[in-house]
Amino acid sequence: MTIERKPESTRDKILLAAFQEMHKHGYQGMRIDQVLKSTGFKKGALYHHFPSKQALGYAVLEERIQKRINALWIEPLKKCDDPLACIERLFLALDTAWSDDFFYQGCPLNNLAQEMSPIDEGFRERIDTFFQYWQDTMSACLKRGQQQQLVDAEINTDDCALFIIAAIEGALGMTKNHRNKAVYFSCTRELKRYLNALKEK
Fold first, then answer.
1. What is the C-alpha separation between 171 and 169, in angstroms, rounded?
2. Is the pTM above the cut of 0.85?
3. CA triplet 88, 138, 114: central angle to 5 degrees?
4. Tens-digit pLDDT profile for residues 157-199
5. Rg (CA), the chain
6. 10-25: string of b/e by CB count within 10 Å (b at 16+)?
7. Per-residue H/E/C for 13-80
8. CB atoms within 10 A of CB 166
9. Element (H, E) at 6
10. Burial, 29: exposed, middle or buried (Cβ in 10 Å; 0-12, 13-18, 19+)?
11. Which residues contact 32 (CB under 8 A, 6 or more apart)?
12. CA 123, 125, 126, 131 torsion: positive or negative?
């Protein structure tokens, strides 16, 4: 009997274990030996897919963190009919999409931005490009709202999108620091007030 090898499965398991380590300890605190221990693989299996710790970190960012945020935020923004209601709904949905433990470890994207952007240009560029993509998508969503007369025609949608993303990441950062989801819901109420102010009068 031959055993079918599944390199994609091996790669995915390594990425998941590395993501969990990075989310808990940061990229710099991620230990390759702990990733291997979690997966049960040998170093050869890891380095077959990822030639360095840096390559592994970039892959976690692009294939785990960015893909998840893309599914949670960006794709829904492309399809929504009422931008302001959609943004509020997506913000609230994180309460069920993420466990409390996940909340208290913070947004993985923002964690990496804070930790690595000042010291690794590769991380900084990748994170900056993704934040810009998120901002552009939200801005386009708000522009559609203006065309439908749901969003104030006078607002600068690029500025508003940037501010909303900053509010999202700030709320998650404060929730992580306080380890109390009541902080997140407090920010939710204030975000709703801001979104209501963007409605077409």
1. 5
2. yes
3. 90
4. 999 999 999 999 999 999 999 999 999 999 999 999 999 999 9
5. 19
6. bbebbbebbbbbbbee
7. HHHHHHHHHHHHHCCCCCCHHHHHHHHCCCHHHHHHHCCCHHHHHHHHHHHHHHHHHHHHHHHHHHHC
8. 12
9. none
10. exposed
11. 43, 46, 53, 56
12. positive
> What is the Cα–Cα distance from 137 to 165, expressed in whole angstroms?
11
Q: Measuring CA to CA, how many Å separate 90 from each of 37, 140, 156, 198, 200? A: 36, 16, 21, 17, 21
pLDDT, tens only, 32-44: 999 999 999 999 9
Terminal alpha carbon distance of the chain: 71
**pLDDT tens digits, one per residue of 143-158:** 999 999 999 999 999 9
Neighbours of 90 (CB within 10 A): 17
51 burial type by CB count under 10 A (0-12 exposed, 13-18 middle, 19+ buried): exposed
Sole residue written with tokens 């969990």: 20
